[in-house]
Specification:
Helix content: 25-40%
Number of domains: 1
Bound molecules: zinc ion
CATH architecture: 3-Layer(aba) Sandwich
Number of helices: 4
Shape: globular
């Protein structure tokens, strides 16, 4: 069994009832604009939201943000979100970091491993180049803005 097929099986498992795999991630430009704007407005606090999306023809397409109460805070924003079950079409998360480091913290990695299949971290200056995508293992993955 190749590494890729193990990965795909895991993705399929994580997607639960969907039982679908994806090889590519597309994020709507509108969603990107919205999260960059919110990240800027929330600064110096973190903002956090869930990502809404669907897998179709092996492409994970991110189409919206799902906000939860208390979406900004000085710390622990991610923890709060991930204490809640992923609802509806939620497939992962996005959160911002104050500062120029978009690497996941240990807490981020833990929650990535437990919830969802696709996660974004946005660091300063909060532009398209400061968005970094991760899979459940905290490994960087590519995405396309559509
Ligand atoms: Zn973080």
């Amino acid at each position: 069994m190749t590494e890729q097929s193990v990965f795909q099986r895991l993705m399929s498992y994580l997607l639960g009832t969907n039982k679908k795999i994806f090889h590519e991630v597309h994020i709507d430009q509108e969603v990107v604009n919205e999260m960059l704007q919110i990240a800027q407005e929330a600064y110096p606090n973190e903002f956090v939201a869930l990502l809404e999306g669907k897998v179709k023809e092996e492409i994970l397409h991110i189409t919206g943000l799902i906000f939860l109460p208390g979406e900004t805070s000085n710390q622990g924003a991610v923890m709060k979100v991930f204490m809640m079950p992923l609802v509806g079409d939620a497939v992962g998360s996005v959160h911002s970091h104050p500062g120029y480091n978009a690497n996941p913290s240990n807490a981020d990695l833990y929650f990535f491993s437990k919830n969802g299949v696709f996660h974004l971290i946005i660091s300063q200056p909060y532009d398209e180049n400061s968005i970094v995508a991760y899979n459940s293992f905290g490994e960087r993955i590519d995405f396309i803005i559509v």
